[in-house]
Design a protein that fits this description.
The protein has 348 residues and is of the alpha+beta class. 28% of the residues lie in helices and 26% in strands. It has nine helices and 20 strands. Helix 5 crosses helix 6. The radius of gyration is 21 Å and the shape is globular.
Amino acid sequence: MKLTYNCTIPNTFGLPVHAACLLEYDSAAELRALLVDGRFSAELPLPLLHIGSGSNLLFTGDFPGTVLHSRIGGIEEMPFHDEKQAVVRVGSGVVWDQFCLWAAQQGYWGPENLAAIPGEVGAAAVQNIGAYGREVKDIVECVECLDLQELTMVTIPGSDCGYGYRESRFKNEWKGRYVVIAVQFRLRKDEWTELDYGHVRQALIARYGGDIGLSPMEVRQVIVDIRAGKLPSPTEIGSAGSFFRNPFILPEQYARIAAIAEKDGLGPVPHFMNEDGTVKVPAAWLIEKCGWKGYRDGNAGVYEKQPLVLINATGRATPDEIVALKDKIIDSVRTRFGVLLRPEVEII
């Protein structure tokens, strides 16, 4: 366990924000001991905030309380025997892409489309991360948590986590109650691909000459290459990845957007029909058509290759600059297309 006072909060935006205290723990037992002997209220500044690697957060200023961070590692196969499936238990502090790489190396299918997403395993299960037609909910078997109210360990089936588009019960009614300790994933040994999102299939054909008889490692590598070509590395340019959610709108709203696009010569509007009858329109398209791609405003900006990504363009951006840019983008999309964008990033 490591306890640091008055320290910089880890965040991939690279913003100069500080916490009164940062507590990093290596096991559920360490965290439970702090709760059992009451030292949370006696020694650690309140409120408490649990984060992963800070890859999906925008701090609007210094945090007056204690930031908790898991350093629980480990990847182990569970005693589950099946010709087509494997169950793997992963510590909440494991870097997500390290797990994706491990699974591909073992020849297991499931997380390859989610390769290279920044963050850690615990946060992935809370956020229900997704990319290229797959979400983490598709492979979560169960989530092992420390219940901060009962001071007991609980195992919650993935089907009970209330997963939706970038949503889970951990982000809503369970927020502040459970701390994710480990996640069990059900992976496939037989080929299980999702290739018809974006240009994944075309990229596979261009690289390997076909999309049949592929390995998880080959699909993973194509996904990594696609992401590298359109998203900045947080180690080079500060960002929180995709800042906005893709909006789900009613068919009549989509018809109005299509009419605006035709009138203004914007070309066809990309869209995807959802099972509930709503229409998903890429937020990136809406933002780009409002003229934001590559925009700079002081030290903040919009990434030139992907308008979904707000960036710390100079490395000296303040939280206020990022927030102001976010608000301007939301206002312009609402004014032109009548769509209210919602941040995917958690704003604190």
